[in-house]
Amino acid sequence: MTKDAKSFIYYFEHRLLPEVFYGAKGGFIMAINKDPQELNRVFHKSASDAEVEDEVPEDFMHTELVYVDDDKKDYLQIVEFNGPEECPLCKIAVMRFDKDFTKLMYYTFEYEFDGSAPVLCGWDEEGNHLNFGDKAETVPEMLEIIASKIEKDKTYA
Question: Among 31, 33, 87, 134, which one has the highest count of C-beta atoms within 10 angstroms of its own C-beta?
């Protein structure tokens, strides 16, 4: 995969998705849950515009909505990426929100330069990169870390 394709994937995972999540809030979440392939279509249209379409996987990502608690007050929109396992790209992105879309957080598990387990990071609403430091190998472990962080820290980073 070329440097241009990797740069495009980075932009999509680290800039475009958090920007749209924080900007469109509920509209974005409703759109990708109404049609789970919509996010892949947007990705591939953008990849085509960036002239890297032939270098990215056909099924680059899939998404799933889960509830953090039984009261259905807090949600996680999980996006699992099927791209290269290389730093600084992501294994998953997790968009955390409440039912009113007032408490938002965009988490990522990013591959490390040294090849170790992906590390929990994120982007805040102002576009600042956050590094929480927790590491995990599998998606269930990653979600467990995020759920634990949410339970411990109700300030929504």
Answer: 134
Q: What is the pTM of this model?
A: 0.90
Least Cα distance to 150 among 132, 126, 128, 127 occurs for 132
* Domain enclosing residue 80, as ranges: 3-152
Write out the E strands in 9-89.
61-67, 74-81
Q: What angle do CA 68, 71, 74 make, to 5 degrees?
A: 35
- Considering the domain boundaries, does residue 144 fall inside one? yes
Q: How many domains does one find in the chain?
A: 1
- Residue 46 is which amino acid? S
Tell whether 13 is covered by a domain: yes
- Which of the 8 DSSP states describes residue 102? -
- Does residue 157 sit within a domain? no
pLDDT tens per residue, range 93-141: 999 998 888 889 999 999 998 888 999 999 999 999 999 989 999 999 9
